Amino acid sequence: MKKQETGRMGENLASQALRKKGYRIIERNYRCRFGEIDIVASTAGCLVFVEVRSKTGPAYGTASESLTAGKKQRLTAAAMSYLESHDNLPENWRIDFVGVDIDPTGSKPPVIEIIEDALG
Questions:
Q1: Is 32 helix (H, G, I), strand (E, B) or coil?
Q2: In this structure, how many other beta carbons lie within 10 angstroms of the beta carbon of residue 88?
Q3: Longest dimension (CA), the chain
Q4: Which residue in 16, 13, 41, 22 sits closest to 101, CA to CA?
Q5: pLDDT in tens, 70-107
Q6: Torsion over CA of 17, 101, 2 and 71, rounded to 10 degrees?
Q7: CA angle 47, 50, 55 (to 5 degrees)
Q8: How far, in whole angstroms, is CA 90 from its chain's centroid?
Q9: How far is 65 from 52, CA to CA, in rounded Å?
Q10: CA distances (Å), 99 to each of 32, 70, 77, 78, 85, in order?
Q11: For the domain 3-115, what is the CATH code?
């Protein structure tokens, strides 16, 4: 599976998991000069910026372990850019993380981990 296919599949699986938890997806793949926010959603009156990390193997750890300090800074900057460029947004916001570990053989279901307020 190619990297882009893995990423697209991971984002689709993450969106489904978030919807099941009551999130409303507002936008996907928001891009700005600071980078990309994979999913913008809302839940319980809170705006949520979601970073999705997908992996197809155990090399270099799990998807959840791949969120670096640099990526956290870029996510925060991208979230601020979104807030500045959109009107009528909820006052409260946070950044969530969804790790999607996909079995490359397809013999096991994907493991999806949602971490709310990941930068807390």
A1: strand
A2: 4
A3: 45
A4: 13
A5: 888 999 999 999 999 999 999 999 999 999 988 888 89
A6: 80
A7: 170
A8: 19
A9: 12
A10: 22, 17, 21, 19, 27
A11: 3.40.1350.10
Distance CA 62, CA 50 (A): 17
Other C-beta atoms within 10 Å of 50: how many?
26
- Residue-wise pLDDT tens digits, 12-70: 999 999 999 999 999 999 999 999 999 999 999 999 999 999 888 767 676 667 778 88
Please enumerate, as own/partner, the contacts of 35-38 that have beta carbons within 8 Å and a separation of 24 or more.
35/74, 35/75, 35/77, 35/78, 36/78, 37/75, 37/78, 37/79, 37/82, 38/11, 38/14
Domain ranges of the chain: 3-115
Cα 99 to the center of its chain, rounded Å: 8
Is there a contact between 82 and 60 (Cβ–Cβ < 8 Å)? no
d(CA 48, CA 31): 15
